[in-house]
Each structure stands twice: as C-alpha cells, then as structure tokens.
C-alpha cells in the first residue's frame, strides 16, 4: 500500500508538525522579503505607533449626537396642519417682527 507523500494535515492543532511548518515558512517568507533590521524596525513601529488621535470636533459631534438622540421627538404635525389651513383659507398673517428678530438672532 502506497501512502500519499503530500502532507494534508491542517494547522488546526497548534503543536502538530504541519502547524509548526506553516509558522516556520511564514516567518521565513517575512525574513526573505525584509532584512533583520527592517523586521525589527517594522515591529517597533507597529507596536509603538498604534495610538489614534481623535480631533476635538469629532468628540463635539459625538456629544451633540448623543444629546439629540436622547431628546424626545417633537410632533409638529398639528401646528403644520393649522398653518396650512390658514394659508389655504387666506387668513394667515405672519408676525414680521418676530421673523426679523429670529433672523437677526441667528445671524449675530
């Protein structure tokens, strides 16, 4: 009976011969592409430079979003329906002073 010479065991078991061979071939492939100094430099940079700085504007946005999400939802449908009815009937009279004050307060 002839056995298949191809190693078909998977690296599922970490201490099996095929898992150790896979790890050895992986590390040797890295060493073939990069010199020892380059590998050390890459390892130092990747472990040292992992911190991420989040800008303050993103933090502000996150805080505002949490507050908005926590606020109760406002239902203006009754007010909108009343305004539409007044406009359709021709009885709507806007308060121009209030509109101007609101525009100026948001502008300055």
Helix and strand arrangement:
Layout: H1 17-33, H2 36-48, H3 56-70, H4 77-89, H5 96-107
How does this structure look, described?
With 108 residues, the protein is an all-alpha fold. Among the domains are: 17-48, no CATH class; 76-108, no CATH class. The chain contains five helices and no strands. It has helices at 17-33, 36-48, 56-70, 77-89, 96-107. The chain is elongated.
- Put simply, the count of helices is 5
User: In total, how many beta strands?
Assistant: 0
In N-to-C order, the SSE pattern is HHHHH
Estimated structural class: mainly alpha
Mean pLDDT: 79
Strand content: under 5%
**Helix proportion of residues, in percent?**
55-70%
Q: In terms of per-residue confidence, which ranges show pLDDT below 50 for 5 or more consecutive residues?
A: none
**Main pleated-sheet profile:** none
The N- to C-terminal Cα distance equals 92 Å
- CA radius of gyration: 34 Å
The backbone outline, from C-alpha atoms, is: elongated
Brief summary:
By secondary structure, the chain is mainly α.
Notable traits:
108 residues, 65% helix, mainly alpha
